[in-house]
């Protein structure tokens, strides 16, 4: 995929006074609330660069400040157009905050906008070094289901113990992947700050996507084991 950068918001004229605006929530000339500009992204909504390492406290502070300014209740006496725009802006603010405050959703959003990642189409392929463990895990899960149906008491207990140990191993692997993701975040931010060229950004996005796929696979393994153990 060649697209590696999101498109900037396109400047537009204020709907009320025709003054040129860009990312502003309000026109700097007449003070009227503005529509969400074409091409705007969640980062620019908060006045942030597309960095993946974000100060959570600062983001929350910006969110509360904007939430107060954009809340539809503040436009009760305004025109219908302004009330509609306030509802639109407020909705986007909430979506943006929910996305950016979560590290995984944040990087998924960045990659989806760049066309590198498609929502709901993550690869579910076992990493090569985990193939043997995953094969063994799936065997144990099948055996547990069979033992549960045949009321195999001692056998079920033994299988559950193996699965619990496997679950802890994969949870540790998930922690390792999260650490890798944090390192990839730092590399992306450094490249962004250094105005790296498109090929370097594409390389880093591919790396981020690969780590996310690995994380998604291991997380699903942990979830499946937890589900089976709960049902036992």
CATH class of the largest domain: Mainly Alpha
Please give the domain count: 2
| Sheet with most strands: strand arrangement | 1-2
> Mind telling me the C-alpha Rg?
24 Å
CATH architecture of the largest domain: Orthogonal Bundle
Biggest sheet features: 2 strands, antiparallel
Task: Report, as a whole number of angstroms, the end-to-end distance.
Answer: 45 Å
By CATH, the topology of the largest domain is: Helix Hairpins
Provide a short characterization of the protein structure.
This protein is mainly α. The protein has 2 domains: 12-113, DnaJ domain (Helix Hairpins); 128-231, Helix Hairpins.
Structure characterization notes:
- A two-stranded antiparallel ribbon has the order 1-2.
- The chain has 232 residues and is mainly α.
- Helices cover 62% and strands 2% of the residues.
- The chain folds into two domains: 12-113, Orthogonal Bundle (Helix Hairpins), CATH 1.10.287; 128-231, Helix Hairpins (Orthogonal Bundle).
- It starts with 11 loop residues before the first strand and ends with a helix.
- It is elongated, with a radius of gyration of 24 Å.
- Helix 2 packs antiparallel against helix 3, helix 5 packs antiparallel against helix 6 (153-193) and helix 6 runs antiparallel to helix 7 (198-231).
């Amino acid at each position: 995929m060649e697209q590696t950068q999101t498109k900037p918001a396109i400047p537009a004229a204020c709907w009320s006074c025709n003054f040129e605006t860009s990312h502003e929530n309000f026109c700097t000339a007449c003070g009227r609330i503005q529509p969400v500009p074409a091409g705007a992204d969640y980062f620019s909504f908060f006045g942030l660069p597309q960095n993946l390492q974000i100060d959570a406290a600062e983001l929350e502070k910006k969110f509360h400040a904007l939430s107060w300014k954009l809340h539809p209740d503040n436009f009760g006496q305004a025109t219908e157009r302004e009330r509609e725009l306030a509802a639109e802006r407020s909705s986007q603010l909430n979506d943006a905050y929910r996305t950016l405050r979560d590290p995984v959703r944040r990087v998924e959003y960045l990659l989806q906008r760049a066309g590198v990642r498609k929502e709901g189409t993550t690869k579910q392929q076992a990493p090569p070094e985990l193939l043997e463990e995953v094969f063994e895990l799936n065997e144990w899960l099948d055996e547990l289901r069979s033992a549960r149906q045949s009321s195999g008491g001692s056998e079920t207990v033994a299988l559950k113990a193996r699965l619990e140990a496997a679950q802890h191993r994969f949870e540790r692997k998930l922690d390792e992947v999260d650490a890798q993701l944090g390192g990839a975040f730092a590399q992306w931010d450094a490249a962004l700050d250094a105005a790296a060229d498109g090929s370097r950004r594409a390389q880093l996005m591919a790396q981020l996507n690969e780590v996310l796929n690995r994380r998604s696979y291991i997380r699903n393994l942990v979830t499946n084991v937890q589900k089976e153990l709960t049902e036992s």
